[in-house]
Structure formats: structure tokens, C-alpha cells
UniProtKB/TrEMBL annotation:
The lineage of its organism: Bacteria, Bacillati, Actinomycetota, Actinomycetes, Pseudonocardiales. Belongs to the flavin monoamine oxidase family. This is Monoamine oxidase. PANTHER family: AMINE OXIDASE, AMINE OXIDASE [FLAVIN-CONTAINING] B. Pfam families: Amino_oxidase. InterPro entries: Amino_oxidase, FAD/NAD-bd_sf, Flavin_MAO.
Length: 442
């Protein structure tokens, strides 16, 4: 049995099937992919928008393996000049070594605050040790020390000013409250130089897995109970026809812990604690399709590339995914929001798209009359995800990481939250491969 048809569950089911296992996948929604979700409605000329997973770097070996295996094509994002809107000032990314036009920097941060950010991140990464050690972070004292911090508190301990942090968030998203050890390990293993995404939409990857698995996936089937004895696992689920129970030799639980909390289980000890305590990070995207790529004529100079405008406003970052669209004339931009920005956006309720439209017009001059289509998603509102990705508090990673990964009897745990590549498809897929090996070895 595999619970959840996100990429973690799909990878496990696909590999177990190929090893001759008789696999059934239970999925609560009517589609595969979970947090890989591509919106196509509401756009003209074949426009599409990634509501969840978007970028694939050349370092994402697990994702790329299946992209190649299923014969999917990748499209690189274009590059270009980025603007900022911070402290109410709008300016282009200053050349390296040139002072940023912002107030409140601390000693030594100007004239090259970007280098100062890299120094801080680099000093944290140096404390991580070997993140691939099975006992990590518990096996590395300096990583355990880092686990006591959020990224922001670690930066502040090295003297980072609020301005430096806000400038960093304008570039990378409001990630200051992430566990420093978790986010720096993720940064160290995940980032590359060439972001790409799948031609026509990233959901082609889960749909390719789903096609290979065929009727083994039962959609609209919500898992409600997991129990086990020495011989088997029993899974209770409900679908449109009622409640059912299936017995299996082994089970892969690839449900995010937020919806898993609603499932009746008899897990104990740190496993039960981790399921109860893992938080999910607020994240939201609000897309607008545009009549033209008007930012190429921005008053500051031509803008372009995926990172169009970095801001300290609720809009977070304005990203540009026009290079992924079939029609070269129309544009596609999005406001990508983390943490308090995503919460504030959600707080506007039905007025939120209108509010964002007004904000975008302020951040990108010339957008008035340009916005012709919209799609948006607030991940903390999705009952099957509970948020963008697993989010550990300071002091939690050292005990929670092994607790999240370890099997409990005949139940094996997969999902991005069990991986080093938190918040990436690569992590979900790697975890699906890991549990396959666990089951083969059992
Ligand atoms: C905003 C955002 C941006 C991202 N950006 C990127 C990116 O740029 N690049 C990248 O590689 N990754 C990115 N990711 C991360 C990536 O999407 C995830 O890491 C990955 O898709 C998670 O896969 P998963 O299988 O672990 O979980 P999920 O995809 O969440 O799958 C879990 C499945 O379980 C199902 N389920 C839940 N409860 C039940 C139940 N009770 N019964 C049955 N089924 C249930 C859900 O419906 C879902 O299908 C992003 C994610 C988000 C949200």
C-alpha cells in the first residue's frame, strides 16, 4: 500500500511495481501530483502557471532521472535584469561593490551587502558537516548548535541588520524563520545555476508516473486509519461508495504530516511527536497573465529573467515565467509569498486578488490594463498539504529528522519532509527511492 499520490508516493509505487510488488496507491484528491499542480484555466493561448513546484536545477539528480525516463522536455528560464522595491524605493540591482540605496545597514554591510550575505550563509554552511551522514545533524556538534537558530537569529548573531535581512528576503523570499540547519543544508545541496521547468507544465511528471501505474491508483480515496500487527498493516479509507479496509504486507506513508494528523494511527514515541509537531510553512502564489512583456520597457531599464522584482512588501517577490509559455507575446508573472506575506495575503479573503493586482501595478509600472488572466493558490489553505513544506522550529531538527524518516514497524515514511531536499520535488522523489530500498531490504 502506498498512501498519497504526490511525487514521493508515486516514486515508491512505481519502483515497487517494477520490482514485482502488487501495489495500490490511495489518493484523497482526484489527481496525482499533490504539491505539483499546474493551472491552465483562466489563461488564453495555452498559458500555464505552476501553483506549487516550479524550478528544477541541474543538481536535482532524482527529479532529472525521471524527467529523462519519461521523455519529458525541460525549458530553461531566461535571464535578465532584476529591480527591487524596498523601503518604498524602486531601483535596479546595484552592480557588485556599489552601495545599495537603503537605510539601516549595519557596520561592514555596505558597500557590498550581497557579499556580506554570502559570508553569513557560508559560515553557517561550514558548520553543517557531512549532511549525508545517516546520523546528521545529531552526529555533527556544530550542526546541532546551528539547529538552535532560525536563519534570522543566526544572521543576527553575526551582526546582520534588519535591512540586510530584508534585502535578503527580497531576493530569496521571507525565509528568516526557517530552522537554520534545515534551510542551509537544503541550500547547500539544492541550488544550481540553471533553473528549468518541464515544457507545458511540471504536472506532466506526476501524470507520467500515474500513467505507468494505471488503475493501481485509487483517486478520491481518503486514508482515515492506519493500524498494524506483527503480520500486516491495515489501512482504512473512504471513497464515494463508503468505508473500506485493505490489508497489506507493508505500507509507504507518503502523506504530509499535516493531513496525517487527521488520520487515526497508533504510532508512539518520537514518531508520534514528530507527526504532532511538524509545522508547515505558509506559501502562496498569485499569477497574472499579461497582454505583453511590458517590463522589457521599464522606466529603470529593460527587466527580465525569473526574478523580476524583489520587494519588502506583502507581494514578496515578483517572478516572471513568461519564458515557459507557448505564446512568445503574452507574459506570465506571479507574486510569490512566504510566511507572514502569505498569511497577510490570505487574510484579504475574497479581496486578495484585487489587492494584489493593485500592488503589482505599483511594483511594475505599466501593468495597468495589461493583466488579463489570473490563477492563485494559498498552500496553507490546502487540507491535503497544510502548507508549502515541512518547517522545523529551532531545536527540533536534531530529534525530528530521524523521527520523521524511521520506519514504524511495517510502515515506511516518505515525503519531502523526510528528505534533506525539503521543499523540492527532488526530496520527495529521493524519499520515494529510499523507502523502496527499505522495503526491498526488509
Ligand atoms: C509554493 C511551492 C513552491 C515549490 N517550489 C518548488 C520548486 O521550485 N522546485 C521543486 O522541485 N519543488 C518545489 N516545491 C516542492 C515540491 O512541490 C514538493 O516537495 C513535492 O511536490 C512534495 O511531494 P510529496 O509527495 O512529498 O507531497 P505531496 O505532493 O503533498 O503529496 C502528498 C499527497 O498525499 C495526498 N493526501 C494527503 N492526505 C491524504 C489522505 N488522508 N488520504 C489520501 N491521500 C492524502 C495529497 O492529496 C497529495 O497528493 C514547491 C512547493 C510549493 C508548495
Amino acid at each position: 500500500m502506498v498512501l498519497g499520490a504526490g511525487l514521493a508516493g508515486l516514486t515508491a509505487a512505481y519502483n515497487l511495481m517494477r520490482h514485482g510488488y502488487d501495489v495500490i496507491v490511495l489518493e484523497a484528491q482526484n489527481r496525482p501530483g499533490g504539491r505539483v499542480q499546474t493551472a491552465r484555466e483562466g489563461f488564453v493561448r495555452g498559458g500555464h502557471a505552476e501553483l506549487g513546484a516550479i524550478r528544477i536545477f541541474e543538481t536535482h539528480e532524482h527529479t532529472l532521472k525521471y524527467v529523462n525516463e519519461f521523455g519529458l522536455q525541460l525549458v530553461p528560464y531566461d535571464t535578465g535584469q532584476r529591480a527591487y522595491f524596498i523601503q518604498g524605493k524602486r531601483f535596479l540591482h546595484p552592480p557588485q561593490g556599489t552601495a545599495w540605496p537603503l537605510d539601516g545597514f549595519g557596520p561592514g554591510e555596505q558597500p557590498d551587502p550581497v557579499t556580506r550575505i554570502f559570508e553569513i550563509l557560508g559560515s553557517g554552511i561550514a558548520k553543517l558537516g557531512n549532511v549525508f551522514d545517516p546520523g546528521w545533524p545529531g552526529s555533527v556538534p556544530s550542526a546541532v548548535e546551528l539547529d538552535q537558530h532560525t536563519l534570522a537569529s543566526y544572521g543576527r548573531s553575526l551582526g546582520a541588520s534588519n535591512t540586510l535581512l530584508e534585502m535578503f528576503y527580497a531576493q530569496e523570499g521571507r525565509c528568516g524563520e526557517w530552522n537554520a540547519a534545515a534551510v542551509l543544508a537544503m541550500e547547500a545541496v539544492s541550488f544550481g545555476s540553471t533553473p528549468q521547468s518541464i515544457k507545458g507544465g511540471n504536472d506532466k511528471l506526476p501524470y507520467a508516473f500515474a500513467a505507468a501505474l494505471g488503475k493501481r491508483i485509487k483517486y478520491n480515496s481518503e486514508v482515515i486509519r492506519i493500524s498494524q500487527d506483527e503480520r500486516s498493516v491495515r489501512i482504512g479509507y473512504r471513497d464515494r461508495s463508503g468505508r473500506h479496509e485493505i490489508r497489506a504486507d507493508r505500507c509507504v506513508c507518503a502523506l504530509p504530516f499535516a493531513p496525517l494528523r487527521r488520520v487515526s494511527t497508533d504510532f508512539t514515541g518520537t514518531k508520534a511527536d514528530a507527526i504532532a509537531k511538524l509545522r508547515y510553512f505558509p506559501a502562496a502564489r498569485c499569477y497574472f497573465q499579461t497582454r505583453s512583456r511590458f517590463w522589457e520597457k521599464d522606466p529603470l531599464g529593460p527587466l527580465g529573467g525569473v526574478n523580476l522584482v524583489g520587494t519588502d512588501t506583502m507581494a514578496g517577490r515578483i517572478w516572471n515565467t513568461s519564458s515557459q509559455q507557448a505564446d512568445p507575446r503574452f507574459g506570465m508573472i506571479q507574486s510569490y509569498m512566504f510566511d507572514t506575506d502569505a498569511l497577510a495575503y490570505a487574510g484579504y479573503g475574497r479581496r486578495r486578488v484585487g489587492r494584489m493586482r493593485t500592488m503589482v501595478e505599483n511594483l511594475l509600472p505599466g501593468s495597468s490594463g495589461q493583466l488579463i488572466g489570473c490563477a492563485e493558490k494559498v498552500w496553507q489553505e490546502d487540507p491535503w498539504a497544510g502548507g508549502g513544506w515541512g518547517w522545523t522550529r529551532p531545536g527540533e531538527l536534531t530529534w525530528m529528522r530521524p523521527a520523521m524518516m524511521q520506519p514504524a514497524g511495517r510502515v515506511h515514511f516518505a515525503g519531502e519532509h523526510t528528505s534533506l531536499w525539503i521543499a523540492w520535488m527532488n526530496g520527495a522523489i529521493e524519499s520515494g527511492e529510499r523507502v523502496t530500498q527499505e522495503i526491498l531490504a526488509a
